[in-house]
Amino acid sequence: MESYTFADLVGDEELFFAEYWDKKPMLRKNALKGNPADILSISRLDEMVDMEVIRPPYVRVNLNGNGISEKTFTRTVTVQGTEIPDSVIPERLYDLYRAGATIVWSSLNHIEPRLRSFCGLISDKLGARTDCVAFLTPAGHQGFNPHHDPVDLFIVQTEGTKHWRLWNPVGERSSQIGVYTEEQLGEPAIDVLLEPGDVLYLPYHTPHAAAARDRTSVHLSIMMRPRKWEELLHKTVEALTEGPEFAAFPYIGDSRGASVEEEFAAKLTALAAKLGAVDAGAELDRLLDSGRRLEPGRPPRHRPEDTFAYSAALDGLAPGSALRRTGTPLTVGATDNGRTQLTCKGRTIAVPTAVADVLTGLEEGAEVFAATLFPDLPADRSVRNAQGFARLGVLEVAA
Ligand SMILES: [Fe+2]
Would you say 148 and 205 are in contact if contact means Cβ atoms under 8 Å apart? Predict the structure, then answer.
């Protein structure tokens, strides 16, 4: 898959945040280079149907504007004695699709690593929770009636085409779903046939209607939940009130004494002082970072070197394999009787001092062979030690 950035989605970021963000919908034709079907293709959706265990609520069916009961397209299967009551029946799902149903996959970022990364572009930039929903609509069918959703959206067309109409947000922004008639809405602000690679941004409360025309359509709806000042300030106060100063349990019932009110006033004054001393930039950075890691749109927590495949590849580490130091911190502890303690990721191990010296002396980017990494050891022991330190994340295979 092509490597995308947030700027690929929105174009000029300064212009986007000044003119569109939280204000009005935006259309970007041909925003995504490469092959947008690599993000999510019709054939990948076929594979997901074949898996059968990608089941409700991950998959839902909508026909003529109404949700179809999941009992219509699922059955119970037994896995090692445990009943799974809602495994998908592919042929039923295909029957519904041929009858004009839109198939909807929710939270696909839980299932597809590439979609997790794609959502991560938005989470990283906004410090907001994101969630990826895929819609597959057969040619000639409207998915849903005009409505607005209670979330901000990025729409990404990955295959086929879909006709979209969007109206500027009207009235008070509401966190409820809203349904409209064509007469209520009048002329749309944006009327476009979305093609692969096109992107729409919809602030929440943007009325929209979409219909597949002469081509099957796959689009992603990436839902964002930016946090209001209210939520951000709540987090700041929560952090400031941690600790012993605010840990007591006051009695605040009817018969409380005047001292409780005095104490409360003193706590408020203390909190106000703490609030006044907050470094706004540093606190916003902290809030941004916490927002990036909100479920379910958080970026992957593991690194490539944590994977089973990486670990398995280390089994075959050859004497001639080139290795180098990673950025993982390694703390040197006490030396006793020719062995030195090294601490890495909370784990302490004692190694021959010569080995500790080699590991801590390796310069950044310097490559050494597994067989000669520890020159005082026989080649096979040097390789085994190298494997151990690579599994720990201290070394990595240079290639
Ligand atoms: Fe919608």
Answer: yes
Binned at pLDDT 50, 70 and 90, residue 299 comes out as low
Could you tell me the pTM of the whole model? 0.80
CA 185 – ligand 1 centroid, Å: 15
Q: Are strands 102-105 and 59-63 parallel, antiparallel or unpaired?
A: antiparallel
- The answer to whether 139 touches 215, Cβ cutoff 8 Å, is yes
Burial of 341 (0-12, 13-18, 19+ CB in 10 A): middle
Confidence of residue 184 (pLDDT cuts 50, 70, 90): confident
**From CA 243, how far away is CA 94, in angstroms rounded?**
57
Ligand 1 center to 144 CA (angstroms): 7
Distance between CA atoms of 128 and 120, rounded to whole angstroms?
10
Q: List the shell of residues around ion ligand 1, using CB closer than 5 Å.
A: 149
Distance 147 CA to ligand 1 centre (A): 6
Q: What is the pLDDT of residues 45-63, one digit of tens each?
A: 999 999 998 999 999 999 9
Reading phi first (left if > 0) and then psi (alpha if -120 to 50, else beta), residue 204 is in beta
Q: Measured between alpha carbons, how far is residue 334 from residues 142, 340, 354 in Å?
A: 70, 6, 14
CA of 365 to the centre of ligand 1 (A): 49
pLDDT tens for each residue of 101-110: 999 999 999 9
